[in-house]
Amino acid sequence: MNYPSQIRSWEQYQSAYHKSVEDPEGFWAGIADEFNWHRKWDKVLDWNFSEPGVKWFSGARLNITENCLDRHLAAEGDRPAIIWEPNDPSEDSRVLTYKELHAKVCQFAHVLKNNGVRKGDRICIYMPMVPELAIAVLACARLGAIHSVVFGGFSAQSIADRIQDAQCSLVITADGAYRGNKEIPLKAVIDDALVHCPSVGKVIVLSRTRVPISMIKGRDTWWEEETRKVEAQGNPPCPAESMDAEDMLFILYTSGSTGKPKGVVHTCAGYMVYTNYSFVNVFQYRPGEIYFCTADIGWITGHSYIVYGPLSAGATSVRFEGIPTWPDAGRFWDLVDKHKVNILYTAPTAIRSLIGFGLDPVSNKDLSSLRVLGTVGEPINEEAWHWYDEHIGKGRCPIVDTWWQTETGGILISNMAGVTPAKPSYATLPLPGVQPLLVDERGEEITGNGVSGNLCIKFPWPSIIRTTYGDHDRCRQTYFATYKNLYFTGDGALRDEKGNYRITGRVDDVLNVSGHRIGTAEVENAINMHTGVVESAVVGYPHDIKGQGIYAFVIFSGNRSDADGIRKAIAATVTRIIGAIARPDKIQLVGGLPKTRSGKIMRRILRKIAEGETQNLGDTTTLLDPAVVEEIKKGKL
Ligand code: PRX
Q1: Which of 44, 183, 256, 304 has a Cα-to-Cα distance from 593 of 20 to 30 A?
Q2: CB neighbours of 233 closer than 8 A, spacing ≥ 6?
Q3: Which of 175, 206, 241 marks a domain boundary?
Q4: Strand, helix or coil for residue 382
Q5: Are the C-beta atoms of residues 308 and 81 closer than 8 Å to each other?
Q6: What residues are in contact with ligand 1 under a 6 Å CB criterion?
Q7: What is the dihedral sign for C-alpha 218, 219, 223, 227?
Q8: Is residue 323 in some structural domain?
Q9: How confident is the model over 520-560, as pLDDT tens digits?
């Protein structure tokens, strides 16, 4: 495959950027022309940010899986699409060529059809990072069923919430998952979740860990048995469903500052065009290169830059089932060495945790195949950036710091490897088609350089969020109502003298723990479900490895003599309600919380205390009971 819209120089970047602003429709139509369509669009873009209503490529028809699979078959069918590396290094890796992946996707699409799945049905996928996860995702897209992938670390309650919200009719899971030296009982978690999910009529179970699990008659069936049935039918071809450009492709749940996680909806055409365009440009992918993104498909990074972006570009990618520190902290570097990885895309939190193991795990590995490094998910501190540059890139690999969100579908602000300049801890410049701006509290644009403010985008790009599933007004309220006619990201940023953006972190009540987004309200709701808890307030604090840690202040009514036991029990409740990723790092039992006279918790003060600041807490005169603050300061963990 060649990439006609790949930008190769600084001058080309500037001219592409200019064109994308002057003539966005012409710009994106030119790029969209590179794909296979059943029918071309009537209009490139229709939009308003007030409802919001955004439509890209109206009237066009396509199937994204034909662009990710079928169109590569003739010339590159034997090229590896997936190189899969298991959790346990003594187990063999697996390679699936484009031909093989295509065949497996078609076969599994038949399995889904045989189990009653039709276009528009919602399918929940809760699986380990095995090739079958990508197969399941693509098989849904082949039929026009809407996938909702839930990360394997979420609890039964979190899965149930997501299944109920989307009214999923079928679940695809596995008996269990391996992560490091742990086995996670996925099917048992699903069984617990499904007690509350009457919409689910079928569960398809892949065998991975082969632990004994319960299989409910009439509801549960094995992946392997179902695929054998399709084999017995002679593996018939599976024509792809013709989808409207704006038909839903998937739902992915993410946390916000209020309420339960919301289902971010992406649609077929714009998402395909943008993930492909950003993939080939940011990483400067060259045909035949080996690309390795260490994320899990359960997050947006996995959707856009493990599944759809790389496959639509005919790329070869490594997918890894395990964790960076097992069996030892050299595992990523073993994989780079073993598979001769050219492009490595990972999270700052992984880099920081590996720095802690020193250079021994890196020193005897051949990393000479690396050409480009990337980071995603959270701000990267300069120390981690330089370590990555020096010890992994050996000073010769550009690092792309990619800023984006579940809602943006693809990378919006990033340097392009070797084409536009990098600057440590800066995401740098917007991609063509992306028009960022900074605003102050009142929504006034802050112009000029050397300034900071709240980051907004003023014009739609093709993979912008279309709605929050089942609640369009929530989408409007959350992203389009804070500032008129702007998409608000929830992030703060500064712009340096040259116009480079540095993302400084969330300005709302959303935490970023190890690159995972967690709403403080969500954690508080979980803590408040624990018996004896009267009220709680959760804030983030700087954490060396996780970026942010979770600090919970909890008013507990019962006997507090065994404070340690209470803290452990509260943490267990959070793990049960949300999942281990939301487990507080610190829980402080307090007698009261600092509140204003109108009853609002003053998080600003709690944040300062959690950060270790005890002197300059700012104005506390509006507090109902200032003595509470003194008590909390004394008991600080
Ligand atoms: O705060 C920003 C941070 O992650 C948030 C989005 O989280 P999520 O939807 O889970 O997607 C993560 C993967 C794209 C953003 O609002 N974030 C993401 N990338 C960066 C970042 N912060 C700083 N620098 C980045 N490169």
Answers
A1: 256
A2: 110
A3: 241
A4: helix
A5: no
A6: 254, 300-301, 376-379, 401-406, 427, 489-491, 503, 505-506, 512, 517
A7: positive
A8: no
A9: 999 999 999 999 999 999 999 999 999 999 999 999 998 88
